[in-house]
Structure formats: structure tokens, C-alpha cells
Amino acid sequence: MGEDDGINGLPTHCYLMCPRQPPIMASMNFASDNTSGAAPEILEAIAQANDGQVPSYGADDLTASVTDRFKDVFETDLAAYLVATGTAGNSLSLACAVPPFGAVIAHEASHIAYDECNAPEFYMSGAKLTGIAGAHGKLSAEDVNRVLTKYGKGIVHRAQPAALSVAQATEAGTVYSRDDLSALSEVCRTHEIVFHMDGARIANAVAQLGRSPAELTWRAGVDILVFGATKNGALGVEAVIFFKKELAAEFEFRRKRGGHLFSKSRFLAVQMLAYLKDDLWLRLAHQANETAQRLARGLADIDGVEICHPVDANLVFAILPRGVDKALKAAGAQYHPWMVPGDAANGKMIRLVTNFSTTPEDVDRFLSVARDAVDV
User: Fold this and answer.
1) Domain end: 251, 280, 309, which one?
2) One domain for residues 142 and 101
3) Which of 97, 233, 312, 342 makes an SS bond possible with 194, Cβ 3.0 to 4.6 Å?
């Protein structure tokens, strides 16, 4: 991810790419919430959907029922479409809202700006991404308004602002409150741009805030949501949800043209239906969030360890003493160093990610190794 003017801003990331290594003990794996398997409930649903012959390319009953299920979850009318990756969801949805001469405002460390290999620009036919700074991975309404006011709307020589995109939870593991989102939405309405949300970790944010999905999205002014499931227990599925349905007019064509329309769509649909059933998505997110809090509390009590961002979701950013870092790696712990401007060579900030399958025992083993290293 990217940024920072010290510890209070979000580090300008990028994982330091490591050579391929043999598998090591999973109980010490805090590298990513993509490293876990799928939730048993979702695997079972996939197996059940495997029987029989059904129409292809989304014409099956399971796919048709996904939109109705989302209407229940979000308590409103909407349009919903399934894709297999968050990058596809972000890129295709933004392409529906932004013309080729347009611009998207986002945090400079956002996934769309830093981790999607120009896919949004590609699908938007060359539209511009403008990254701006914000402490702990978050954008303030004041900063966004300042940028948009100076952008030069209507001036033919400049890209025209068309959308604001925020990540919920953010790349720093923080979350936007309902008030935060409402303030940003007001800025979007003032400047007549679309409010887009990258919800790769939306479950973690909803679980943390204890507000309804509706309150944290369309009721707060969000127009488009990419609803993530893969990081939180799905095998591989995301949903693009248009609360402002007129923006969805081109989506199906763009999805097909982009190669993201699955022929066996039922296997995407059944994952999402199982994920939403009986609030499984929130139960899985609570597990990830709780183990992240346990990890953060334990690290904060260790001499020389500094927690770099508020821990609102399932990500913990910390600076470790070199001896602790060395001991953890020797014990088989997996996590990524995170770059900070001016200190990229040291890579002393690390990112730790918990997921739905992380247990308290996993966390306690990690903390035990860290404490023992300090005592040496």
C-alpha cells in the first residue's frame, strides 16, 4: 500500500517480494487473509451445487437469487453482479462511472492506486487515478473537497473528476465511521461525482462498527460497492453492487468484454449465497477481528514494539526490535515487511493479517516467541 510521513500516515507499501519458500507452520502465518482456505460452509455449498445440469452464463436460479439476497441484506433495491476478483470488481465498476477523460480520487495507498497494476486505468480507457494522502489510510472530507475544488472542473485542458473511491476497511486496517462516510458523500454530491467503495474487507468493517450494512453504505451516500468475500472465507467471489442502479447500464457488457463473465456462474453464486446465509460473513469477520485485537494487545505489551495504526479490522502494523523480528522468522512466522518512505531499505515496519481461521493459540504462539526474544 503506500504513503506516510512517519508513523502516523500509511506506509507506501509494497510487499518486499521474497523468493518462493517451502510451506511452513500455518499457525504462524500472518502474511495475508488470502492464505487461508475456504470456510467449510462454503465448500459444502459448492459440492451441493455440483449436481445436475443448469443454464450457463448467469441464467441459473442460484445466480438470479443473489440480487434478491443482497436486497435483503442492504434493505433496498439494487443491482448486483458477481465477479471472481476484487480487481475486476473495482475496475469494471469504476469504468461504468468514469469517462476516459475523467479522474478518480483515492487514497494514495489504496488498492486501486497501488496494487492493481493499472487495471482500473485500463478498463476506464485511460482515465486518471489521483492519489492523495491521509493519516492511517483514511481520507478526510476536508482534504477531498480541497483537491476537488482545485481540480478545474469544466476546464478542457484537465482531467474531469468523476468519482471518489474509498476502501472499507482501509489498507491500514482502519475503518470509516458512518459520520466519516456521510461527510465524504456530501463532498461527492457538492462536486457531482460518484461515491465508490472498495469493500474487499467490508465484513471486517461492519463487524467492527456494529452498524447495519445499509447504514455503512447507501444510507451514508455510497453509490457503488464492491462487496468482498474472498478474503473472508470464500473460495473466490466478489459482488459489484450498484445502489445507484442507472450506473449499472453498461456493466454486463463490460464484464463480458473484459473476460470476467463466468460460464459456470452457479459456482460463484453458491459461494455468495452461503457466505450471506445466517450472517456467516459477519461471524467469520468477527473471528478475524478478535484475533487481530488479541495480537495487537499482546504486541503492545512487549518492550520495544510500536503499533503504527489503530487496529479496527484484521490488520496489525507494527515496528519490531530487530532481535524480535529475527527470532520470529527463525521460528517460522510469516508476515510481510512494509516500506516507509525514507526508510524503505530497512523495511522495519511489518504487516500482520489475521483471517477467519486464525485461532487464539496461533496468536499466543507468535506472542510467546516475541516475548522470549526480548528476554534474551
Assistant:
1) 280
2) yes
3) 97
